[in-house]
Design a protein that fits this description.
With 242 residues, this protein is of the alpha/beta class. It contains eight helices and eleven strands. The protein has a seven-stranded mixed β-sheet with strand order 3-2-1-4-5-7-8. The chain has a two-stranded parallel sheet with strand order 6-9.
């Protein structure tokens, strides 16, 4: 069984080598052209290679039996997902908030969040589900703390079930409906604060904590002079609280 993995996440790269290497799998790691800057040293050493999934589809089909997407910035082409088994490790609880930054939208729209391992089809974050794990969102969470909890859940799911995922011995389940999808354009749109919008304090705090994910600068507004001001929220649970 020859496996290729595409990731644009530095934390996941070492985890992939640890998981797959310890189980004796033959595998190769790739990153997207857009993610290449993250792995400049690793690319030089051959630890990971750049792949264009559309242009190199024939090469992948020739050399591999299964493909995994782990926080990958490329969409797997239809021909690839229809020819070999392709599996996505997704930081969201399908079918809720499929697409970009599920934790951001889950804080705002109160839909469930978690980790999903699923078989890929032609649609983004769509297809029969192999494994899922829901995680909680607390009132003191930000996008970053929820994301970290989701990634931990992803890793636990894959670590505990890697052999079954690769061997195809998990019975897939259909998604419970189509859910909803958020594009990168949807995310970009919510980053600019409407200073005249009337909301409750709860809505305001939820909105700002959903867009707080250090070291990134996300939420912003413009002053009357056209100056751009970034906004983030600092939340800390009282250690004396029950």
């Amino acid at each position: 069984m020859k496996i290729f993995v595409v990731t644009d996440n530095r934390w996941w790269l070492d985890k992939i080598y640890k998981l797959f290497g310890s189980r004796g799998y033959v595998f190769k790691c790739y990153c997207s052209p857009k993610g290449a800057s993250i792995f400049s040293e690793e690319i030089k050493s051959g630890y990971i290679e750049i792949v264009d999934l559309k242009k190199q589809c024939d090469e992948l089909l020739k050399n591999f039996d299964i493909g995994l997407s782990v926080h990958c910035k490329q969409i797997f082409p239809e021909r690839l997902v229809n020819s070999i088994r392709c599996i996505n490790i997704h930081p969201g609880l399908n079918p809720y908030n499929r697409g970009w930054f599920p934790q951001v939208f889950s804080i705002i729209n109160k839909k469930p969040i978690g980790a999903t391992i699923h078989i890929m089809d032609q649609q983004v974050d769509h297809g029969d589900i192999l494994l899922q794990s829901e995680v909680a969102i607390y009132e003191w969470d930000t996008s970053k703390t929820v994301y970290e909890r989701v990634v931990d859940a992803e890793y636990s799911l894959l670590e505990d079930n890697l052999t079954r995922v690769i061997d195809g011995t998990i019975t897939p389940k259909k998604m419970t409906g189509e859910g909803n999808y958020n594009s990168i354009a949807d995310y970009v749109q919510i980053k600019e604060i409407d200073m005249d919008k009337v909301v409750t304090m709860r809505e305001a705090i939820d909105y700002l904590r959903a867009l707080t994910h250090s070291p990134y600068k996300n939420a912003y507004f413009y002053t009357g002079n056209g100056e751009k001001v970034f906004v983030s929220l600092d939340l800390e649970k009282d250690s004396q609280s029950l």
